[in-house]
Amino acid sequence: MTPPLPPLAVAPACARTLADLLVALSAARALPKGQQLHGHLLKGGHLPAVASSHALLAHHLLTFYARCSLPELSLRAFLDLPAAPSPAAWSSLISSFAQNGLPEAAFDAFRRMLAAGVPATDRSIPPAAKAVAAAADSSRPPLAPHALHGLASKTPFAGDVFVGSAVLDMYAKCGNLADARRVFDEMPERNVVSWSALIGGYADAGMHPAALCIFRSALEEAVQVNDFTVSCIVRVCAAATLFELGAQVHARSIKTALDASPFVGSSLVSLYSKCGLVDCAYQVFSAAPERNLGIWNAVLIASAQHGHTSTAFERFTKMQNAGFRPNFITFLCLLTACSHAGLVDEGKRYFSLMKEYRIEPQVEHYAAMVDLLGRVGRITEALDLIESMPMEPPDSVWGALLMACRMFKDADTAAIAAKRLFETGSRSSGAHMLLSSTYAAAGRHVDAALARKAMRDAGIRKETGLSWLEAAGEVHTFVSNCRRHPRSSEIYNVLEKVGKKMAAAGYVADTSAVVKDVDRDEKCASLGYHSERLAIGLGLLIVPEGVPIRVMKNLRVCDDCHNAVKYLSKCTGRVVVLRDNRRFHRFEDGLCSCGDFW
């Protein structure tokens, strides 16, 4: 019988070798092996740290747990340090909290560091700035960004490019763009992080022309932009539906190999989807060499907005099989897909599935569920869901219910929804107009007039409906009955000619939503030249045959225009892709991709 082997003796190892091993395990994020080594250090008496060499081990252990997304264990490792932790150890603790979604803990650690007499350095200021930027507005002291900036300016690192970039990024993410721009202009040296932070700040604020201008300046100064910079600019192009410029940025990213980044990939998916080219969005997703949760969510919302509901469900299953854990955005995409297809049972199933992933439904999810129930006419059930919400329903939720009331001409519930919406302090012109048009659709023209009067008395102006079309590098914008375009006479002529063909094919204007109590001829005249029809009219003139006419609109397309564009596509043989503020509509041969459900 073979005798058992004696226990393996552990040869003494120098602290430097163990520290190098910890660094390697940190880089690989090898949690089980790192925990085994941690246990060895505890058993061997290397921790809690006493000697300076042991302090090095504790410091690397702190970093290891931070990279493994375990900030609580980073804190435990920090507590194993000698009584007076070094500035580097404090910086690592602050970074651990900041990088793992605990901004309040990070900033608290920064304050405790200063209270302990440890000066701020170029390693502790950037994570502290990140923590200030990530903190919720309600928990962030009002002057925290300026206080941290003031502290940084008094240190020897005031001119350091990394410190300056961190302060700039903090101001940008806090919405203080004037301060961010001043820091940028005063920096003695800038790097790609500085440029990207400023571009990202303007992009997040919706200041698209400014973001594009800064990007052009960066290229003129030969800045080697990174994937974050490109992602920001593509997001700007997507938000402004600047397809041609976005395609140019895509081409540049291919030449620099930045298109391989999942961050750039997710932005490109959004760009092509929002510009109505969903097949291109799918191609970008399929060709992505690396995928993260962001690009999965981007392709899910693209499928949802374009009415490809079954595709969205299939991709969600593939995402789960690929090992990705859905987040609150993922479920919002799925609920949107269900809403656009009227799939109540599936929507309820996904809403319940959130709890299995320990995700608490937020107001956006409730708004999507109210929208889903409302679209299929289950308005009472939608109202009951609102009343059961664990938080105060915001205007988005009441607005979804109000839209449903408009669709089903439920004027009484619309009045309740509008009253509750106005109690939230909302000054939305859309809500007033929805209430007015709901009354008009129900034949209650006196109430419709009173709703419009209440809007005027409150000093609220109706949001102007805009539609725009991009062609040959130029964006053409229209409002209803607009005659300011250089080719207005041609646009009206072509629409009149097509209108006669549409009437012969059976088109009859739906005047039920016209809020004014006037005769039918006046109602038809007010509908005939809505902004989207004028944009489509220009498209018929300048967009080549065989190329879809892509039009964007800032408001929901009205029932009559939706029906009219179906007839227009049938009579002209043209494909029209129309994006309103709710979804995409692809009109072809007299049919719409939404199935008349929007």
UniProtKB/TrEMBL annotation:
Single GO term (MF): zinc ion binding
InterPro entries per the UniProt record, alphabetical: DYW_dom (IPR032867), E_motif (IPR046848), PPR_At4g14850-like_plant (IPR046960), PPR_rpt (IPR002885), TPR-like_helical_dom_sf (IPR011990)
Start and stop residues of the PPR repeats: 86-120, 160-194, 292-326, 327-361
Coiled-coil parts of chain: none
Every DYW domain range: 506-598
Keyword terms of this UniProt record: Repeat, Transit peptide
Pfam families tied to this protein: DYW_deaminase (PF14432), E_motif (PF20431), PPR (PF01535), PPR_3 (PF13812)
A biological process term (GO) from this entry: RNA modification
Protein name per Swiss-Prot or TrEMBL: DYW domain-containing protein
